Amino acid sequence: MTAGKDNLMAAGPRSGFGIWLDQHLYSFVASLGRVLRRPWTTLLTIGVMAVALALPLGLGLALENLRHFAGSVEQSREIDLFLKPEIEVARAQALAAELRGRGDVAKVEVRTPEQGLAEFRARSGLGDAIGALEENPLPSLLIVTPGEDDASLVAALDHLPETGLLQHDAAWRQRLQGWLGFGERLAWVLAALFGLGALLVVGNTVRLDIQSRREEIGVLQLLGATDGFIRRPFIYLGAWYGLAAGALALGLLAAAAYALRAPLHVLAQSYGSGFALTGLDPLRAAGFLLAATAVGWLGAWLVTGHFLRQTRPTET
């Protein structure tokens, strides 16, 4: 007995950091136990939060995939320069070499009339009718990829003496970029609104839990417990809700992507594209889980702080 007492005295009292760590560990485990003891309430709260978090994230991922499906920025900026029918292939290749020397041109591809006719025959299914033609009616085509400034390049190409027809649908590209930009802004607005909704859901759930432990909290306040000590288990409770809701939201999005993968693959093949849906990479998924946990933590912190301010004993 004396030896045990001597060992305890030799060890000395616990440090303030050790006590603080023990309190956090206890609150961490106790809050998880409260979550598991009420499965239906927990599932309802987590489910509502998960849907609220998944909707704006799903919209953002859909817009990101739409950008990939519409083609890269470089492809959408290509200029189709159809030369006059009398321009020979040798002159077309020489003109392409001249254009490659310009500073505002990134790349030039030459497509001969024979190549264009073969591609048209393969895509149109009119092989017999095309074979009956006595001569090839298609001109040489230069596919020009501009550098930074495509407006001045379009004007220069349009004034070339060899130019027969120039196609550069800049207005379509600008409209597409405008719609995608609007969609991104809409996704951020919805993220803020649904994030606020998730915060209110977890706040209300924690408020109900606080009300059920109102007498216990009153006793702790009378015994001199600090607000931080009382608030800590409820904050961890909110964090658990947020983390579980974030994980469920990622699961819902993964299930939605699996359901859409097959029909989207068929649609992409009809456009001659090998496009496939892309989801969140591990780093962004971890960031989303951290953000969802922070939403739960913040909701619990706000509600608990409001309750403690309302019930703090007054000094006499």
Mind sketching the topology for me?
Elements: H1 2-11, H2 16-37, H3 39-70, H4 73-76, E1 79-83, H5 89-100, E2 105-111, H6 113-124, H7 127-131, E3 141-146, H8 150-158, E4 163-167, H9 170-212, H10 214-222, H11 227-270, H12 282-311
Antiparallel strand pairs: 1-3, 1-4, 2-3
Describe the structure.
- The chain is an alpha+beta fold.
- The chain folds into two domains: 23-72 and 174-311, no CATH class; 79-167, 2-Layer Sandwich (Alpha-Beta Plaits).
- 73% of the residues lie in helices and 7% in strands.
- It has a four-stranded antiparallel sheet with strand order 2-3-1-4.
- The longest helix has 44 residues, at 227-270.
- The two termini are 46 Å apart.
- The model is unreliable at 1-12 (pLDDT under 50).
- Part of the ABC transporter FtsEX involved in cellular division.
- Belongs to the ABC-4 integral membrane protein family. FtsX subfamily.
- Keywords: Cell cycle, Cell division, Cell inner membrane, Cell membrane, Membrane, Transmembrane, Transmembrane helix.
- It is a multi-pass membrane protein.
Compose a concise summary of this entry.
Keywords: Cell cycle, Cell division, Cell inner membrane, Cell membrane, Membrane, Transmembrane, Transmembrane helix. The protein is an alpha+beta fold and 316 residues long. Helices cover 73% and strands 7% of the residues.
Give the tags.
alpha+beta; Alpha-Beta Plaits; four-stranded antiparallel beta sheet; disordered N terminus; 4 strands; 2 domains; 316 residues
What is the element string, with H for helices and E for strands?
Answer: HHHHEHEHHEHEHHHH
Q: Roughly what percent helix?
A: over 70%
> Taking Cα atoms only, what radius of gyration do you get, to the nearest Å?
33 Å
Question: How far apart are the termini?
Answer: 46 Å
State mean pLDDT (0 to 100 scale): 76
Number of helices, counting only DSSP H or I runs of 4 residues or more: 12
How does the overall form come out from the CA principal axes? elongated
Major β-sheet, in short?
Answer: 4 strands, antiparallel
Number of domains: 2
Derived from helix and strand composition plus strand pairing, the structural class reads alpha+beta
